[in-house]
Write a structure and sequence with these properties.
Blueprint: H1 6-24, H2 27-44, H3 49-76, H4 85-88, E1 92-97, E2 105-109, E3 112-118, E4 130-137, E5 140-143
Parallel strand pairs: 3-5
Antiparallel strand pairs: 1-2, 1-4, 2-3, 4-5
């Protein structure tokens, strides 16, 4: 075992840290693996054991301290481009058939004809009026 260089052991450690990264999908293991690779590079350049461990610790902690908050911010952000039903909310539509709270009306929304009902059951919209889509319930647009 003394014949194997220290940088090989660091690469083995990096591979060992890569396994739980894949199995658990915890990115912290990947950051520790990168720290082990940095320590392997320092060992390959002839650094002593203390410096190798220091490089491992500094690189690993720096990655965790910098990358985790950035990743958390990105995970918390809503998508910038709304697609599907979410893209229709807030759009304006034209009433083609009288729309009221019962849901028997029709609107033209985004070039398509949709069934629609009024958000307020007591409200009715006549043909030709512009309405705002506030929600989509199945295949029915909820308008006001």
């Amino acid at each position: 075992m003394n014949d194997i260089n220290a940088w090989v052991w660091w690469l083995v450690a990096a591979a060992g840290l890569g396994i739980p990264l894949v199995v658990t999908a915890m990115p912290e293991f990947g950051m520790l693996a990168v720290g082990a690779v940095a320590a392997a590079v320092s060992a390959g350049l002839g650094a002593g054991v203390v410096l190798q461990v220091l490089v491992f610790a500094v690189v690993s902690v720096a990655l965790i301290a910098v990358v985790r908050p950035v990743a958390a911010r990105h995970r918390a952000q809503r998508p910038q481009l709304a697609t599907g039903v979410e893209a229709l909310k807030g759009k304006q539509a034209i009433v083609l058939e009288r729309v009221d709270g019962s849901g028997g009306g029709r609107i033209k929304l985004g070039g398509e004809i949709w069934s629609a009902r009024a958000l307020d059951a007591g409200q009715a919209y006549e043909v030709g009026q512009e309405v705002d889509v506030v929600d989509i319930d199945g295949a029915t647009a909820i308008v006001m």
